[in-house]
Amino acid sequence: MNRTVDVLVVGAGPAGLAAATRLAAAGAGRVEVLERERAAGGVPRHCARPGFGADALGGPLDGPAYARRAVRAALRAGATVRTGVSATGWAGPLTLDLTAPSGLERVRARAVVLATGARERPRSARLVPGSRPAGVLTSGELQRLTAPSRRWREPVGKRAVVVGGEPVARNAVRTLRAAGVEVVAVVAEGRVRRAAFGPVPVLVGTAVAELHGRGRLTGVTVQAGDGRTATLRCDTVVFTGDWIPDHELARAYGLPLVPGTRGPATDGAFRTAEPGVFAVGNLLHGGEPAPVAAAEGRAAADAVLALLDGRPWPTRGVPVETAGPLRWVTPGLLGPVSVPLLVRPERRLVRPLLTVGQDGVVLRRERLDGTLAPWRSVRLPPRWSSGVDLAGGPVVVGAEE
Amino acid sequence: MSVSRTGPLPVGSGAEYDVVVVGAGVVGSAIARTLARHPLRVALVDAANDVGDGTSKANTAILHTGFDATPGTLEARLVREGHRLLSAYARETGIPVEPVGALLVAWDEQQRAALPRLAEKAARNGHHATRMLTAAELRSREPHLGPGALAALEVPGEAVICPWTTTLAYATQAVRSGVDLHLDCRVEKVRPGDPYHRLVTRRGVLRARHLVNACGLHADAFDALVGREDFTVTPRRGQLLVFDKFARDLVRHILLPVPGPLGKGVLVAPTVYGNVMLGPTAEDLTDKTATGTTAEGLAGLREQGGRILPALLDEEVTAVYAGLRAATGQEDYRIAAHPALRYVTVGGIRSTGLTASLAIAEHVRGLLADCGLDPGPERPPARVRMPNLGEAFPRPYRDARLIARDPEFGEIVCHCERVTRGEIRAALASTIPPGGLDGLRRRTRARGGRCQGNHCGAEVRALFEEYGEGAR
Ligand SMILES: Cc1cc2nc3c(=O)[nH]c(=O)nc-3n(C[C@H](O)[C@H](O)[C@H](O)COP(=O)(O)OP(=O)(O)OC[C@H]3O[C@@H](n4cnc5c(N)ncnc54)[C@H](O)[C@@H]3O)c2cc1C
Ligand SMILES: Cc1cc2nc3c(=O)[nH]c(=O)nc-3n(C[C@H](O)[C@H](O)[C@H](O)COP(=O)(O)OP(=O)(O)OC[C@H]3O[C@@H](n4cnc5c(N)ncnc54)[C@H](O)[C@@H]3O)c2cc1C
C-alpha cells in the first residue's frame, strides 16, 4: 500500500511524541507517528518509578504516567499515533517501508523525523570475555522483565552484580532490590558517588574481566586498576549505560554520523545531511533524560514547519568536534544561528576550562564552576556557538582542568 | 517418530533399535537422516537438551570446497563430496547458502610465493577453477582491504551457510521419517552384547543392535565406554567476533589467510545473516568445556582484523563466542568400523564437519553395512522446508502474502533481526521445538542481534513461556 503524509515521525518516545505534538498543533497537516512496540511512549513506558518530573499538581511522575501524558498530548493535538508498526528501510528519498500486522506499506512524507532512541551496549559489544551463560542483561532488558505489565514473571535471579556508574545503574540497583534480588556489588570503571547506591558496595576503578558459568551465570571476575582481581558469586549481571544510538534507519539512508556519539550529524535545528530528514532525542546522543529528548523534539518542529512552508534547506554547517577529555558534543554541525551545545565529559572534571576554537583561533574560553561528571551533560548556552566562520574549518570544543 | 526430553525411555520388546546414533551434532544428525531413508528403527540421542548444541553451533559457517585439504585423505574426499551434497540439499530444504567465493590474500612475499603451490594443491583436490589475482584486481574486488595486500588466489565455490539450520534440517527430517530423538539423555555406560548392546542413560536403558559414536569432542570418551582407546581428542579452541550488519558492505568474499609457518591466521567472512565474522583463533587446550573467550584472544583478533579490514574495527560487535575443534593429532578424520562390536566411531571431525556431514553420513552407512547391518530398500525421506534465516532470501517481515494470511508474520518482535511473532510461534510448535531461549535464537535469530535482547528479551521470554517448553 502506498500513501503520502505531511510528516512521518519514526519512534513514539518522548522526542518523537513532542515533535508530533508541536507539529500537529501548528497545523502541519497529517502528522503520523510510528511505533514498533505494542504501545507508544518509548523507554519511560518501562520505567515504573518516579524520576520523570512532576504532574500538574506537583506530584512525582513515573515513567508510564509520563509516557501516557505524552501520547495523550500528541493525540489531542491531532497527530496520528500508530503502534506495532516498524519502519524497516527506505524506498527512496523521504519514503519509508513499513511492516505491520495489517500488511506492508510504503509511505512518502514531505518531512521525516527520526526519533528512534538509543540502547545500552550489551556485554558482547563491550567485549567482555568468558562463557555465555543466561543471566546477562542490560538495564533496558531488566526494566522490561520486571515491568508490572509483564504477564508472566519468572524471578530475574537471586544475586546480581550491576556494571556502570550512571543514574541508570542506580535505577538498576533499585529495580533489582524491589524485585527481591540481592545486589552483591556495583562495578564502576570511573569514579562514582558511593552514597548514591545506599548499602550496596561500590567497586570504583574496577572493570568486569570475565563471566563464568555454563547454562546459568555463576560469577564474574572483576579487575581493579592496579590489576588485582576478585571473583564475585552471582547469577545475574546487569550492564548499564554505555549508550549507542539506534541509528539503523539513519545509517541505512547513508546519513553521516558524528564520531563521538555515533548519532546522525545534525545542525542546531536538527536537520540531517538529507533535505527533509530530521533527527531528535537519544538517537543523537544516547542517555539523556526524557525532558531533554522531548525538548529536542519540540525544538525541531520549527525547522520542520519552515521546510513545509517551502523555505530552502540551508547549506551544510561547519562540523563540531571535541578535543581533550570530552566524549562528545551535539549538534554535530553549526550554522548561522547560535544554538546551545550539549557536551559530555569523558571523565570527572573539576572546574574545567572550556574553549571553543576554529582554525587555531580561540572564539571563547570560560572556566566552569563546579564539577562535570561523565554521566551528565553540560548545556552551554547559545553564546558559546556564536562567531563561527561558516566558511572555516571544524569548530573544536576543548577542555582543560 | 518422537522427540523426548524427559521421562523414561521406551522399554520392553519392540523397543530395540537397529541403530542408535549417539551425538546429535551436525554429524550425528546427518547420519540419522541418512539411516532414516531405510526401514530401520533408529534413535538419535544427545546429552544436551537440543540438537546441535556442541561444536556444531559455534563454527565459522563456511561450506568449504576442500581445495586446501591434504590430497588423498578421507577428509579431502568427504569434504569435496559433502560440498556437493550439502549444496544440493540446501537448495531442496531452504538452508541459506551464499556462494560468495573465497580469496586467499597474500600480505607478504612469502605468502605470495605460496599461492601457486596452493593452486596446485587445489588442482590435486579436483578444484581447477582457482585463479591468481594481482594487487590491482584484488583491490577492485575488495576495496576496503587494508594496505599491503600483494595478491590473492581466488577460490570460487567457497560459500557461507547457516550451520544451525543445517543441523536442524537433518534432525527434523530424521524425526519426521521415523527416527526417535532423545535429548537430555547422556549415555553413561555401554554394556556390549549380542544381539543387543545396552546403553545406560539417566533416563533408562536403550537397546541397540548397532552403535554409532558421533560424540564430537567426547568421541574418545565414548570409545572408552565400549573398551576402545584408539585416539585422544584434544580440544582446539577457536574464538570469534561477529560484527554488526553495517559491516557487511565492507567485504564481498570470504577472505582466507594463507597458511604459513606462523599458523593458520584468521579469516574475515560474511555470514548469511548479514554480519561479518572475524576469527577463529587456534589454541590447544585440555578442558573440553572451555568454550569461553579470553581478553587476549579477542584483542588478538581485533589486531589481526584491523590489518585485514581496518574499517571493521569502527563497527559494533554483535556477538563473541568460541568453539572447540576435535583434534586428534592426526591430520585426517578418525572414522573406523569395528564389525565385531557392530560399532562405528566417527571421530576427529575437526574443522570441516559441517561441510562434510552428508558425505560422512553416506560413508558411515557403508561402514554399518560392513558391520552386518542390512539397511533394506531405500525410500524417499519425509519432505522438509526450513524457515529462512538468511538475509539474501525473502524474510517473512517483507512477505505481503504471508502477512495477509497470518498477521503475526507482520508483528516484529525482535527488531534488530526482524523476527516476527509468527516465526517464533512456528519454531516453538515445530517438529523439534527448542529446549531454551538459545535454541529459539538458533531457529529464528530472536535475541541474536545488535541489542542482544535489550528490546525484545522480555517479550521473547514471555512467548517462550506461553507457547514453548515453559508452557508444558
Ligand atoms: C533504564 C532507563 C532508565 C531511565 N530513567 C529515566 C528517568 O528516571 N528519568 C528520565 O527523565 N529519563 C530516564 N531515562 C531516559 C529516557 O528514557 C530517555 O531520555 C527517553 O526515553 C529518550 O526518548 P527518545 O524519544 O529519544 O527515545 P525512546 O524513548 O527510546 O523512544 C524511541 C522509540 O522509537 C521506537 N523505534 C525505534 N526504531 C523504530 C522503527 N524503526 N520503527 C518504529 N519505531 C521505532 C522505539 O520502539 C521507541 O519506542 C531512562 C532510560 C533508561 C534506558
Ligand atoms: C572454531 C571452529 C570453526 C569451524 N569452522 C567450520 C567451517 O567453517 N566449516 C565446516 O565445515 N566446519 C567447521 N568447523 C567444524 C565443525 O563445526 C565440526 O566439525 C562439527 O560441528 C562437528 O560436529 P559433530 O556432530 O561431530 O560434533 P558436535 O556438534 O560437538 O556434536 C557432538 C554431540 O555429542 C553429544 N555427546 C557427547 N558425548 C555424549 C554422550 N556420552 N551421550 C550423549 N551425547 C553425547 C554432545 O552433547 C554433542 O551434542 C569448525 C569448528 C570450530 C570449532
* Residue windows where pLDDT falls under 50 for at least 5 positions of chain B: none
In whole angstroms, the N-to-C terminal distance of chain A is 58 Å
Biggest interface, chains and residues, is: A-B, 41 and 44 residues
Total DSSP E strands of chain A: 29
- If you compute it from the alpha carbons, what radius of gyration of chain A comes out, rounded to the nearest whole angstrom? 22 Å
Q: Give the helix level of chain A as a range of percent.
A: 10-25%
Q: Mean of residue pLDDT of chain A?
A: 94
- Compute the separation of the termini of chain B in Å: 19 Å
Counted by DSSP, the helix tally of chain A is: 6
Mean pLDDT of chain B: 96
Q: Any idea what the shape of chain A is?
A: globular
* Most strands sheet of chain B: 9 strands, mixed
Percentage of residues in strands of chain B: 15-25%
Structural notes for this entry:
Chain A has 401 residues and is α/β, with parallel strands linked by helices. In chain A, 18% of the residues lie in helices and 36% in strands. Chain A has six helices and 29 strands. Chain A has helices at residues 14-25, 63-77, 139-146, 167-178, 248-253, 290-308; strands at 2-10, 31-35, 50-54, 60-62, 80-83, 86-92, 95-100, 103-114, 118-120, 136-138, 159-163, 182-188, 202-204, 206-212, 219-224, 229-233, 236-239, 243-245, 277-279, 318-322, 326-330, 333-334, 341-345, 349-350, 353-358, 361-367, 371-372, 378-380, 395-400. In chain A, strands 1, 2, 5, 6, 7, 8 and 19 form a seven-stranded mixed beta sheet that branches. In chain A, strands 10-17-11-12-13 form a five-stranded parallel beta sheet. In chain A, strands 22-20-29-25-26 form a five-stranded mixed beta sheet, with no helix packed on it. In chain A, α1 (14-25) packs parallel to α2 (63-77), α1 packs parallel to α6 (290-308) and α3 (139-146) packs parallel to α4. The mean pLDDT of chain A is 94. Chain B is α/β, with parallel strands linked by helices and 472 residues long. Helices cover 29% and strands 23% of the residues of chain B. In chain B, strands 1, 2, 3, 10, 11, 12, 13, 20 and 21 form a nine-stranded mixed beta sheet that branches. In chain B, strands 14, 16, 17, 18 and 19 form a five-stranded antiparallel beta sheet that branches. Chain B has a four-stranded mixed beta sheet with strand order 7-8-6-15. In chain B, α1 (26-35) packs parallel to α5, α1 crosses α8 and α10 packs parallel to α12 (457-467). The longest helix of chain B is centred in the first third of the chain and has 20 residues, at 74-93. Chain B is globular, with a radius of gyration of 22 Å. The model of chain B has no long low-confidence stretch (mean pLDDT 96). Classes of the chains: A alpha/beta (401), B alpha/beta (472). Chain A binds chain B through residues 36, 84, 86, 88, 99-104, 119-125, 127, 129-132, 134, 137-138, 140-141, 144-145, 147, 150-152, 154, 209-212, 214, 244, 251, and chain B through 246, 289, 291-295, 297-298, 316-321, 397-398, 400, 403-404, 407-408, 410-412, 415, 418, 436-438, 450-455, 457-459, 461-462, 465-466, 470. The complex binds flavin-adenine dinucleotide (FAD) (2 copies). Residues 22-28, 45-48, 53-56, 59-62, 64, 186-187, 214-218, 222, 238, 280, 323-325, 349, 351-355 of chain B line the site of one flavin-adenine dinucleotide (FAD).
